[in-house]
């Protein structure tokens, strides 16, 4: 009965979906959310497998596995975060992808670098485009971020490409780059946190350069046929120097041109947590307005 009612409201919801050569049994996507169910060094655990097995059994078309850090330096943001940064991570990730697919869903791995938005206080300073701290965590004792050098930026771009290739090698159906919610890519996109005066700061074209270089590196390594999504905040809802929806529409258009196959829209960052992790009392479908705006300017699927 519930499915019949849903079909009346959303007639396309249970129709097959399609992203770059991959068909999904329906258009319901389980978005990546942090679980802290990995080992301390980022390997898959039985609890993590059980978690994603249950989600896949629930009937969604696509399961996006919560973010995995791309290198062994500063990309990890929380304790017991999944990793895709070295060969030791691969057997568990292959097992995880197989479990999701065996239970009726397609499997996507989200890859990320935390940037200045780190929840661990005991492992030194985070890295970010500029030396602008996350105020609440700075007050709690987190060191202010160190500004990334040009050479470090090149290393991180390369790490994203390597991570995407590992996801392909262990048979995830697609990969998603986390470019939302106040993590490193967002730190570059945001005029509030990006104060650079080189190639990577200033104009929107410069602020999106880092993300576009990541996409280019990924495409070089996984090929043109492997499905690639990018998650963006429609806006970060910041009052001072926000990422605006007009900015994000321009970023989305550039990503489509660069070979991205889907845009996954949410919103907010950890300054504006109520817009990032939507509360039970928040309006229904809180960020759909932003997805609608982005859908107007791209021809690729919008999640």
Give a quick set of tags describing it:
two-stranded antiparallel ribbon, 11 helices, alpha/beta, 303 residues, globular
Q: What does this protein structure show overall?
A:
With 303 residues, the protein is α/β, with parallel strands linked by helices. 36% of the residues lie in helices and 15% in strands. It is built from eleven helices and eleven strands. It has helices at residues 2-9, 46-57, 90-102, 135-140, 150-169, 184-189, 204-207, 209-222, 245-258, 273-276, 288-295, and strands spanning 17-19, 22-24, 29-30, 62-69, 82-83, 106-112, 127-128, 146-147, 174-179, 228-233, 262-266. The strands form three sheets. Strands 3, 4, 5, 6, 9, 10 and 11 form a seven-stranded parallel β-sheet that branches. A two-stranded antiparallel sheet has the order 1-2. The relative contact order is 0.12. The model has no long low-confidence stretch (mean pLDDT 93).
Offer a quick outline of the entry.
This protein is of the alpha/beta class. The chain is built from 11 helices and 11 strands. Helix content is 36%, strand content 15%.
Largest sheet: 7 strands, parallel
The ordered string of helix (H) and strand (E) elements is HEEEHEEHEEHEHEHHHEHEHH
Number of strands: 11
Compute the separation of the termini in Å.
Answer: 25 Å
Shape: globular
Write the layout of secondary structure elements.
Blueprint: H1 2-9, E1 17-19, E2 22-24, E3 29-30, H2 46-57, E4 62-69, E5 82-83, H3 90-102, E6 106-112, E7 127-128, H4 135-140, E8 146-147, H5 150-169, E9 174-179, H6 184-189, H7 204-207, H8 209-222, E10 228-233, H9 245-258, E11 262-266, H10 273-276, H11 288-295
Parallel strand pairs: 3-4, 4-5, 4-6, 6-9, 7-8, 9-10, 10-11
Antiparallel strand pairs: 1-2
Helix pairs in contact: 2-3, 5-8
